[in-house]
Amino acid sequence: MADEEAGKEGEKKIVHVYPLVKHSDMNEEMRIEAIELSITACEKYSSNYEHAAKIIKENMDKKFGIYWHVVVGEGFGFEVSYETENILYLFFAGNLAIVLWKCS
Helix 49-64 vs helix 28-44: angle between axes, to the nearest 10 degrees? Predict the structure, then answer.
């Protein structure tokens, strides 16, 4: 029992400082643009996820057409319907999740 507790204390939590893409079916160009846009917005508005999501959505609507939806936050689950080749789910700065999808 004591050995198990000592092992747990020695474990370190891994925090990713780079974007960790969990799922995407976007083409390469769109995915890179969406990742860069998401990271920039989340770094700029790190204390206001709602504003970061709004900035990401507005820019995606301008660049890739309307009907984009964005969720930015920690500790949430999701299930969405989306257009094929138009979803991105990634983590940034540890446990900050970002989901972008297009559904018209």
Answer: 150
**For the chain, how big is the Rg over CA atoms in Å?**
16
Q: With 0-12 CB in 10 A as exposed, 13-18 as middle and 19+ as buried, what is 101? A: buried
pTM, whole model, 2 decimals?
0.81
Domain regions of the chain by residue span: 20-102
pLDDT tens per residue across span 57-102: 999 999 999 999 999 999 999 999 999 999 999 999 889 999 999 9
20-102: which CATH architecture? 2-Layer Sandwich (3.30)
